[in-house]
Structures are given as structure tokens and as C-alpha cells.
Design brief:
Phosphoribosyl-aminoimidazole Synthetase, Chain A, domain 2, 7-stranded mixed β-sheet, alpha+beta, 3 domains, single chain, 60s Ribosomal Protein L30, Chain: A, 13 helices, about 25% strand, about 575 residues
Length: about 575
């Protein structure tokens, strides 16, 4: 682990001089108010988090939880496609769930994966007094003012539509220029630190940069798209496609030249100090001042009350074939560019996607997973998300290396929600420990309630794994293959299964985890993916389904039971092909 929690994204060393940066975060409340822009700017924000580490984004994944596949859902999908497709980063995976519990509080979680040289991890904190603070990218306006306080930290209600002005407006073409300009600045060694200008705008980004030093910012220098912004509005605006950099004096002209080449405004808005304070000036007068550490490491902390909630039964029931949770999601991911960048070896549609680490034959398997649909126990929800994401990666031939989590919960000021949050974290931690894999980054989304009704505990976990050779990624079962299945119950058993599947993947033609729809749904999904039917005796319980040539079954071990054979044009009564 080259960088853990505390920076814009986590970073894991891949060996051979390469590293991967990744993170998942939420844009739930904006998406509930205006789904197209809410989802689009969620993609833009997570891209900038990875860029801030000095990494080139190579993949996006999204976790979408909605009440139904209706208008709001379709608008969110359109927003994700509009931004990701335009900015030139492939959307290769994710998860979609429909449940009435999310009807009034939709969840849009976005994950980004980027690549960088292992010796060139860029960080956000300023470290030398006298260096210049540069703001580059889009101009600053009123869009997004109050996004963090008006939307993210309050419950929704009947007046939520009035909060639409708090939703940021995205511009993916400026976002693309921002990616290229930022990477050029980092690759040429022109910036000392780099920070995304996201939630709470300059107030947040500068306080994080100033936490170990101090920063003076001159708000009247910030390029505006509206001439009459007040100093406080400039400070907290969440206008998109902006980055903040710390630059040495002798590099300023070169930085400005790079930004000019990419047609981006570039402005010297302040300087690093040794005062320990974040001070905002406007027209030569101090508009605000506070010790920077009070906004970061020394901010007020408190223990939320926690009270165990009465146990609720699992709200999931065996879905029918026409349930939208079981139906093919191809109509969704077909709206996303999956191949731009020419790294995608395995497209979305089954378990994890795989990206090639050119020019080598190694690859990255990436997945994003939440708990089982209807799960109400927060501990199990956390553990399920971790183990599900890791098993998806293993099924694509990847050894899990690192995790990132997004914790979606209701109002933590309510003791039962505080307890849910604590228990989910414990479930994530213990499952990660069982796997021996670190959680390197993440995000918290709270207050997901409407008129007192909270969402179920929904921790969503992303996993990144290393594929030794992309030529041996399981691609689909073939005529004559044997189909086998195995079950696993308990953290230790599931973790062992993940490690085993990752290890034997090169021997397999297909590996697929058993999800919400049960074993039957998993077999149908495998047949659709492969384009070949099968004759099977469905086991009562299984955690994973594998397929391989019959002569290799004995090498899989006694825990795997043969349940069928690949062949024909149907599986469990469904026509394939």
C-alpha cells in the first residue's frame, strides 16, 4: 500500500514500477433532486480524486440503487454515460439494484480506477511556505453552492425540488482538458501538490492543503462566471472541473503555459504560509480566518449514540424471471463506452471487468458490490459487500489487492442508525481481515432519509485485483464442459473460496458467483454470457458456479460437486442464443 485513507484516493503498488489509484464515493442527494446532473457530476468528481493522485483514469464503475427502472433511473444512467463517454474513460462495471426502499432516496455511487508510476504518487498537502496556490480549470459560479451542507447533510423532504440550484452542473469536455493538463503538469514535475476542488469548494480543498502549514487565498482573484458573487459564495461554490495546485515560483510560467495549451484559465490565487491558518482575503481585507487544523485533523469530534435495533427479517424473496433485478442489465451498460482507451479485455456483464496493463500481459480485475438485496443486518451487509466484490474479482482471474468503500446510511444522529454504521464497519473490517486485503480509501454518505424513513444499511465496496496473464481470464463455458458448484458459509470459508477461485481461474472456462437470484439465476446468467445452454441439476445452495473441461474437475478438490454439462440451446427452460 503506497497510500491509504487520508488522501484523495488510495494507491496500491502493482510491481514492475506500476501502481493503481482507486476510490468510490457517493452523489446520492444531488441525484435524488436532479438525476442526470447528479450522476454526471458524481462521475466528474471521482475522476478528479484519482487525477489528484497523479494517476490517469482508466476505468469507471457505478453502483445504482433505485426504487424501480423508471424515469429517474434512466436519467441517472444517461448522466453517467454522457459524462464518461465524453471524457473518454470507459465505464466497465458496477451494480444495479431496484427496491422500494430506495424510491425516495436513490443511491449513485461512482468508482474510478487510475494508473501511475509507483514512484510518482502526488499528494494534496502543502509543505513549503512561499509557494504559490494556483487554481485552474473552469470558472466559478453559484452552481453547487451549499451542495455539501444543503444536500449532503440533510434529509430530503417535499421541498427537495427547490434544492435544484444546489446541484452542480458538469462539463465533460472541460473535464477531459483538465485530465490532460493535470497529467502533463505532474509528469513534467511542475506541481508540488494537487487537490480536487470538490465538496465545499475552495473551503474544503484549501483547508486540506493547509492542514500542516497555512494558506492565504485572495478571493477577488478567482475567475468568476457571475460578477456579483459574495466572498463566502466564492469560497464554498462547488462549480465543477476545477483543480488547485501548489507551485514553486520558478515553475509558474511553465504551469501557465500548460494550462494555456489546454485552453484552461489558470490563476494565482494565493500562497502557502507558515501561520497555520487558512485566511481568505477580498479586496485587501480579511474576509475570514481560522486555524486550518480545526477544519481537518483537529475538527470537533463526538461519539454518536448507538442503540441496537430490533432484529429484522431478511426482506428478500426468491425473484421471478421477470424481476428487474434478475433481468439482463445489458440495456444499461450498452449506453456506456466500454472500450475507449483500448485496455478492456473483459467487458461488463458478468462479475468483474478486466483491463490490460499494457504493454505487459498482466491485468486488473475491478468490481463494485453492495450487500444482498433486502439485507437488513448491518454486520452481514458489510461482510457481504466485501466478500462479494472480492469473489467477483476472483471469478475474473484476479487476486484481490485492495478495497474501497462507500457507506450509505440514514441519519447517524438517531441511535439505531449510529449502531448500523458501527456494525457495518465491523463487518467490512472483519471480512477484509479474513481476506488479508486492506481498505485504502472510501467515502461516507449519511442522512439518506425522507420524512424519517431511512434506507437499509447499504455499504458498497469496490475491489481491485491483479490478473497474472489476461490470456487466461475465464471467458465463457464451452460445449462439453463440466459444470461444478461449491458452497461456503462463514467469513473464513468464503475468504478461502475467494483465494481458491483466483488461483484455479486459469484452468476454468467460466467462474460466476451466485447472487441475489440464487443458483438458477446464476446459471442462466452464465449461459447468456457464454451463448451456450446446459443440462443441470440445480443444487439447493451454492456460492459459486464453475465450468471447465471434464478432465480438470478432479483438480478442483472434493468441495466441488459436478451439477451438469454444457451443451444445447436452453438452460432451465430458457432459450439461449
Amino acid at each position: 500500500m503506497l497510500q491509504g485513507p487520508g488522501e484523495n484516493a488510495g494507491v496500491i503498488d502493482l510491481g514492475d514500477g506500476e501502481a493503481v489509484a482507486f476510490k468510490v464515493e457517493s452523489h446520492n442527494h444531488p441525484s435524488a433532486v436532479e438525476p442526470f446532473q447528479g450522476a454526471a457530476t458524481g462521475v466528474g468528481g471521482i475522476l478528479r480524486d484519482v487525477i489528484a493522485m497523479g494517476a490517469r483514469p482508466v476505468a469507471l464503475l457505478d453502483g445504482l440503487y433505485f426504487g424501480d427502472p423508471g424515469h429517474m433511473f434512466r436519467r441517472a444512467v444517461a448522466g453517467i454515460g454522457a459524462y464518461g463517454n465524453s471524457v473518454g474513460v470507459p465505464t466497465v462495471g458496477g451494480e444495479t439494484r431496484f427496491d422500494p426502499a430506495y424510491r425516495e432516496n436513490v443511491l449513485v455511487n461512482a468508482m474510478c480506477v487510475g494508473l501511475l508510476p509507483a514512484e510518482r504518487v502526488t499528494r494534496a498537502k502543502a509543505r513549503t511556505a512561499g509557494h504559490t496556490i494556483v487554481l485552474y480549470g473552469a470558472t466559478t459560479g453559484r452552481d453547487g453552492i451549499g451542495g455539501a451542507s444543503v444536500l449532503a447533510s440533510q434529509e430530503l423532504d417535499d421541498e427537495s425540488s427547490e434544492k435544484r440550484p444546489s446541484v452542480q452542473i458538469g462539463d465533460p469536455f472541460t473535464g477531459k482538458k483538465l485530465i490532460e493538463a493535470s497529467l502533463e503538469l505532474v509528469e513534467r514535475g511542475l506541481v508540488e501538490s494537487l487537490q480536487d476542488c470538490g465538496a465545499a469548494g475552495l473551503a474544503s480543498s484549501l483547508s486540506e492543503m493547509a492542514s500542516e502549514m497555512g494558506i492565504d487565498v485572495h478571493l477577488d482573484r478567482v475567475p468568476l462566471r457571475e460578477p456579483d458573487l459574495e466572498p463566502w459564495e466564492i469560497m464554498i461554490s462547488e462549480s465543477q472541473e476545477r483543480m488547485v495546485a501548489v507551485v514553486r515560483a520558478d515553475m509558474l510560467e511553465a504551469v501557465e503555459a500548460v494550462c494555456a495549451h489546454w485552453e484552461l484559465p489558470c490563476t494565482r490565487i494565493g500562497e502557502v504560509t507558515d501561520t497555520g491558518e487558512l485566511r481568505a482575503f477580498h479586496d485587501g481585507e480579511v474576509a475570514g480566518s481560522i486555524p486550518a487544523r480545526l477544519l481537518t485533523d483537529e475538527c470537533p469530534r463526538y461519539e454518536v449514540e448507538r442503540e441496537p435495533r430490533a432484529a429484522e427479517p431478511h426482506a428478500w424473496s426468491e425473484p421471478t424471471r421477470d424481476d428487474p433485478n434478475v433481468e439482463s442489465k445489458e440495456w444499461i451498460f450498452r449506453q456506456y463506452d466500454q472500450l475507449v482507451g483500448s485496455r478492456t479485455v473483459r467487458r461488463p456483464g458478468l462479475d468483474a471487468a478486466v483491463l490490460r496493463l499494457r504493454p505487459s500481459l498482466r491485468g486488473l480485475a475491478v468490481s463494485l458490490q453492495g450487500p444482498r438485496l433486502g439485507e437488513r443486518d448491518p454486520y452481514r451487509a458489510g461482510a457481504q459487500a466485501v466478500l462479494g466484490a472480492a469473489l467477483n474479482v476472483a471469478c475474473a482471474g484476479g487476486e484481490p489487492l485492495g478495497l474501497t468503500d462507500c457507506l450509505n446510511f440514514g441519519n447517524p444522529e438517531k441511535p439505531e442508525i449510529g449502531w448500523e454504521l458501527e456494525r457495518a464497519i465491523e463487518g467490512i473490517a472483519e471480512a477484509a481481515e479474513a481476506l488479508g486485503v486492506p481498505v485504502v480509501s472510501g467515502n461516507v454518505s449519511l442522512y439518506n432519509e425522507t420524512e424519517g424513513r431511512a434506507i437499509p444499511p447499504t455499504p458498497v465496496v469496490g475491489c481491485v485485483g491483479l490478473v497474472p496473464d489476461v490470456r487466461y481470464v475465464p471467458r465463457g463455458w464451452r460445449e462439453g464442459d463440466a459444470i461444478v458448484a461449491a458452497n461456503a458459509e462463514g467469513l473464513a470459508a468464503e475468504a478461502a473460496l475467494v483465494r481458491f477461485v483466483a488461483r484455479v481461474a486459469p484452468l476454468l472456462s467460466l467462474a460466476h458467483d451466485v447472487g441475489d437470484g440464487g443458483v438458477e439465476a446464476a446459471l442462466v446468467e452464465a449461459a447468456r454470457w457464454s451463448g451456450v445452454g446446459a443440462e443441470v441439476d440445480v443444487p439447493q445452495r451454492a456460492r459459486v458456479v464453475l465450468a471447465c473441461p471434464p478432465e480438470r474437475v478432479g483438480r478442483l478438490g472434493a468441495q466441488f460437486e459436478q451439477i451438469g454439462e454444457v451443451g444445447g440451446t436452453t438452460v432451465l427452460g430458457e432459450i439461449i442464443g
